[in-house]
Amino acid sequence: MTHNLPHGKNLGSINPNMVGYTSSVVTNHWLASMVGRDILNKGGNAFDAACAVSFMLGVVEPQMSGIGGDGFIMMFDKLADKVSVINATGPAPELSSQIKDFINYKSIKSSSVPGLVSGVIKMHEAKGSISLKECLKPAIIAASEGIPLSEDQGHSLEIESEMNKFDSSMKIWGENNKLKSFGEKIINEDLAKTLSLIADNGSDAFYKGKIAERIVSYSNQKGGYITKKDLENFNAEIVDPISTIYRGYKVYESPPNSSGITLLQQLNIIENFDTSVLKPGSYTAIHAMTEAKRLAFYDREKYLADPKYAEIPVEMLLSKEYAFSQFKRISLSKRIKDSDLEINYLPDKVGDTTYFCILDSFGNAVSQLQSIQTQWGSGDVVEGTGILMNNRMTYWHLDKNHVNNLVPGKRVRHTMNPVMVFEEDGGKESLRLICGTPGADTQVQTNMQTISSFIDFNFKVGESVSMPRWTHYQNLTESTIPHSIKTHINIEERFGVDIKRKLESLGHNVEMCGAWEGKGSEGMISLDKKGLIGAAVDPRRDGQALVW
Question: What are the boundaries of each domain within the chain?
């Protein structure tokens, strides 16, 4: 089904514009959305619901995230009137100093220190209102009793998981030496026991108890790099967000080592264009935004890393003066030459994520991304724990001259960037939008498109997530090893051949994909001045938006 989006342009939206007045939960799996709703209806707040959803997603959507991974959590505490961020990304393990010229793509050898458990429990301890046991109960039940393998999961198991290489993983997602398929039941009793230990003993159970011992033992057995010290010393950090003003709206992002600064740079640049240039579905919007992305990604390659290991000129990069100077480099008649955006390093020789957002009846909100890196992460489950480990080590550079070079104890540059948008009115800020998306380096591009459609064109959130999507790929800037890819713009076929031709006339290399095969899976919750809540989930994944 299609219907007309605002302003007369039919862009093929398939989402209803769902609204309510009380609360909303948007996740990339229907069962996780139901758990968040149930926690809120039991009297829990957004932080309780986020805790429950986070652990539940690790059970029902394990190809994207889980307790063997990491994340960023943005929180808005309505009573305190404060936005804060939990950096739950783990560093490179102590023994990763042994890596010289090759990083494994799969196996526990590709795993960094898991940070998610510490971050989620830190949020719950600080702001939760019901017990941790109550929050983890749905995930424990789902893991022990089993959940059906989704169609998307079955497909990804078959084509890109490499799970059949690991006996511990095949015990869960295989049978008779064959990977399971759509609709088959997945039971992870070991994970249920692990989650029960966490429910009883908090994050110490994971980082200092039997779970930690098993992770370290398995890592040692399989040639991994995680040590007891790595786990014992890890503690997720609560940090202040960074922000910019975009056409009167304050956009909050997670600070470096997140790529949130890159989204803010993009918005600062495109703010200089008349909104007519940015009209969704137009070739001018794709061109202008692509050029802004290219300029911002050049800075990302030059500066962005763990701020404990690199000097990052955040104030300069986010200044409106700098953004205007970048804007002046963009021509609407031709593409910036690659030679004018030279990346001065060579690729090394040699994803995936989930997003959810929650708004409760008290006005509290959570915007959270969590990941095990690529789909199915390392592919390697720690024997006896049910924990599917991340392969985040593949985000490192091995060139010692690169700002994001591998150093033990250093946190890798992340693509995850949860967003909240507030409207400024007479010195007061009011929450208007919560959003984010998986998609590695495409995240900041998708967020730029949806935020612009929402602010510049008054699109409802259902329309914003459904509009045709483009993605720009740029050689040498991609995060995952080997850090190189063919430079081109990928556009969904709903844009039409004429748009492709016009972009090519400006000097872009353009490829088309299926109508709904663009990257990302944007989740959005809006809140207007009258208290009306809108909720939408990207139709490109298995998500579910609930609002009531």
Answer: 19-237+356-395
Tokens of residue 175, six digits: 């049978």
Helix, coil or strand: residue 148: strand
Q: Which residue among the candidates 353, 394, 450, 471 is catalytic per the annotation?
A: 353
Write the CA distances from 351 to 148, 369, 384, 520, integer angstroms. Answer: 22, 13, 26, 10
pTM: 0.94
Q: State yes or no: is 450 an active-site residue.
A: no
DSSP, collapsed to helix, strand or coil, labels residue 398 as coil
Nearest C-alpha neighbor of 236 from the set 315, 124, 375 = 124
What does the DSSP 8-state code read for residue 92?
Answer: P
**pLDDT tens-digit series, residues 45-86:** 999 999 999 999 999 999 999 999 999 999 999 999 999 999
Adjacent-strand bridge partners of 489: 472, 510
How do residues 116-147 score in pLDDT, each as one tens digit?
999 999 999 999 999 999 999 999 999 999 99
User: How many whole angstroms separate alpha carbon 35 and alpha carbon 147?
Assistant: 14
pLDDT interval class at 480 (50, 70, 90): confident
CA distance 500 to 504: 6
